[in-house]
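INPUT
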Amino acid sequence: MSDAPFLIRLVAASVAIADKAGLIVRDIMKKGELGIVEKTGIQDLQTQADRTVQMSISTSISRLFPGVNVLGEEDDDQPAVDEQYVYSDMSADVLKYADKCPDKYKNVKPEQVVVWIDPLDGTKEYTEGLLDHVTVLIGIAIDGQSAAGVIHQPYFNYKAGEGAQLGRTIWGIIGVGSFGFTQKKLPEGKTIITTTRSHPTKTVQEAIDAFKPDEVIRVGGCGHKVLIVLEGEAHVYLFASPGCKKWDTCGPQAILEAIGGRLTDIHGNVLQYHKDVKKPNTGGVLATICNHDYFLKNIPQGIKDQLKP
Ligand code: AMP
Ligand code: MG
Ligand code: MG
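OUTPUT
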């Protein structure tokens, strides 16, 4: 076992386990038996990949880091533990940062930590073959604040054809940085917004219209949309709806904030991630690399009034 600080080891394990989760997600798709279940309705699905990856990540993390709180989207539907999906690997790329652990995280105790898992974000898109929308999300909160995160994109590069290396893992720790992606310069003099594809509502659309955007990128998944903001493809991810949950935002938020971005609700409130917090982000989601206050200020009050934090 590495003697790196606890948080660095936890992130190193999360990266390695998320990589393995990508194999599970691709394998289930290849076999073609998705085992789709409707949770609250046709827009809220669960597949065998959601269930198996949930069990894999949650069991692997709990065994490696006893005492840590582990909460996941599919906790209630987790299948029996299957040892072939329980891992103890750690990413060497992350362990290299052992001596960069910020002072405030050096003595973190397991009880201070909540690991938020979205085993498959963008499930609806997964079932429709929009494969690059799909991500596996692991968020690490310390004392209720998002501190580190992992976004694994199992089908990154899948349009590149035979032989291309599939999948990538993006990770970040506040105070250390974010890794695994390329940041482009945002287009100037334009507003590009990314938002939901499969969960549109009246408030979602009205909030977008208020900015008279030049382009709206409608794609699945919170992880995927934060990636679009991270890479400089959109100025903002705006979702004026209560549908997104803590496991969607915890990991992506840390990755974004580790490079100076912000992710809050549409009122500007800092999201809380302690273990007893309510799961839905009822105040919506706003994520940016820069100019966060401009977007906060210009979301119409009438929409803010409909989305109580
Ligand atoms: P989307 O941008 O629509 O892909 O949503 C981002 C995340 O929030 C996904 O995990 C969705 O499952 C979740 N989500 C958003 N709206 C809803 C909703 N109305 N019901 C259930 N889940 C939702
Ligand atoms: Mg999700
Ligand atoms: Mg999910």
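end of record. Residues 275 and 288 are 26 Å apart (CA to CA).
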